[in-house]
Each structure stands twice: as C-alpha cells, then as structure tokens.
Design goal:
By secondary structure, this protein is mostly helical. Helices cover about 70% and strands about 0% of the residues. The relative contact order is 0.07.
Length: about 70
C-alpha cells in the first residue's frame, strides 16, 4: 500500500460516522467515473489474473471462479 493511500485511510478514519457516509459516496462516484464498467484491475487482481493465465497457458478457457478463488 502506498504512503498516500495509508495517509488517506488515516484521515478518513478520523471522521465522524455521518461524514464517512459522505466520503464513501464520493469515493464510489470517483471510482465509477474512473472505471464506469468496472473493467480495470487493481495491482493484486492483475497479478492473480496473470498467474492464472500462465498456469493455463495451453489455450484452455478458465472460469471466473478459477481467477477469484
């Protein structure tokens, strides 16, 4: 986790509960505008997907369960 992410989390954790709801809504809006179809991967998701693809390098199809389990 980057230092900026950690700092952001620490700041958000200091907020009262009602403000957390507002921040949560704002973050959802930002993520949806950045990736409206939810097609982008986090770094961890990308690593997992690449690992599955290497393991199944023989051209086989793999299911969603193979990737996310």
């Amino acid at each position: 986790m980057s230092a900026l992410t950690t700092q952001t989390i620490n700041l958000v954790q200091m907020l009262p509960e009602d403000e957390l709801v507002t921040i949560n809504s704002l973050l959802k809006m930002l993520v949806r505008s950045w990736d409206p179809d939810f097609t982008k991967l986090t770094e961890e998701e990308r690593r997992q997907l690449e690992q599955i693809e290497q393991e199944m390098d023989n051209g086989e199809y793999y299911s969603e369960d193979d990737v996310w389990d």
